[in-house]
Amino acid sequence: MSKLRWGVLSTAQIGRTQVIPAIQRSNNGEVVAIASRNQQKADETAIELGIPKTYDSYDSLLDDPNIDAVYIPLPNAMHKEWMIQAANKKKHVLCEKPVAITNSELDEMLTACKKNNVVFMEAFMYQFHPQHQKVKQLIKEGVIGDVAFMRASFSFYLEDRSNIRLSNELGGGAMFDVGCYTLHAIRNILGQEPSSVYASANYHPKLKVDMTMTGTLNFDNGIVTSFDTSFDSVSRESYEVVGSKGSITVTSAFRPDTNEDMAGEIIVSKDDGTTEVVKEAGDQYTLMAEDFADAVLNNQPLTYDLTAMQNQMKVLDAVYESSKKGEVVKL
């Protein structure tokens, strides 16, 4: 098998505009089928993106023996059901974030994954962009001294109040949608897990989903971090790492692919008053697809493995628990 043969469950926008084209740009994957409960949508998307086969149900696609792996961009509350269904059909699974609604859901998914010996990964694509490795390198080299603080933000104003992102039943909310990136980035860049979480949120009185959430992750080595996310604020997607001798700011932390040449900007400010701007380019969606396919085709370890997924879900669980109880949650 020279290329991984992908099927896609649903015609969701993230798949149509980002992930499917990224797989098609990859050197080790091809999209061979797409399924939708609306046959017309499946057919239109297939024509638009050059996908050879369509199905009018997810089950039919999973029954196709010529599909090796599936990408699942369904609503959050549907991830568990269809990941388990796919695993039981021996399909490897790349699933959109958040991979589950709760840590207990993830446990069920991991059980199915291990039982069926399939590769399973959560689609946190941002981490594959080379700008983050550059940040880690700068921190390791002591460019900003000892790290004391980190903050991460990801927000946008959601005008359409009927959007699926605001459906409590389908796992909506700002933290599930984009805020989870901030938690991931803090843990990813610092390379460690928090010991406690505190979060505060504004929940929509009728929709019962978080519209804005902010909070802190504290670490045993004394590093303090903060995160914020919102559907009610202007677009923001950045993080800053502050040390004893300077700071590093990443201005397009999560969607540098929207910039010219898919380049991220890293601003290094030092205590001597100097500032350096570093550019790092990379196709994060394609790099993610290639990493996953390499794991399946060549039995290579995933860059983002099952343990890392579990750790992310534990923190996300704790953040929601803290926001509802109004108290610190220890991990």
TrEMBL record:
Residues 132-248 form the GFO/IDH/MocA-like oxidoreductase domain. GO terms for molecular function: nucleotide binding; oxidoreductase activity. InterPro entries: Gfo/Idh/MocA-like_OxRdtase_N, Gfo/Idh/MocA_domain, GFO_IDH_MocA-like_dom, NAD(P)-bd_dom_sf. Keywords: Oxidoreductase. The keyword Transmembrane does not apply. Residues 5-123 form the Gfo/Idh/MocA-like oxidoreductase N-terminal domain. SUPFAM superfamilies: Glyceraldehyde-3-phosphate dehydrogenase-like, C-terminal domain, NAD(P)-binding Rossmann-fold domains. Pfam families: GFO_IDH_MocA, GFO_IDH_MocA_C3. The keyword NAD does not apply. Transmembrane segments: none annotated. Belongs to the Gfo/Idh/MocA family. PANTHER family: OXIDOREDUCTASES, TRANS-1,2-DIHYDROBENZENE-1,2-DIOL DEHYDROGENASE. This is Predicted dehydrogenase. It comes from Gracilibacillus kekensis.
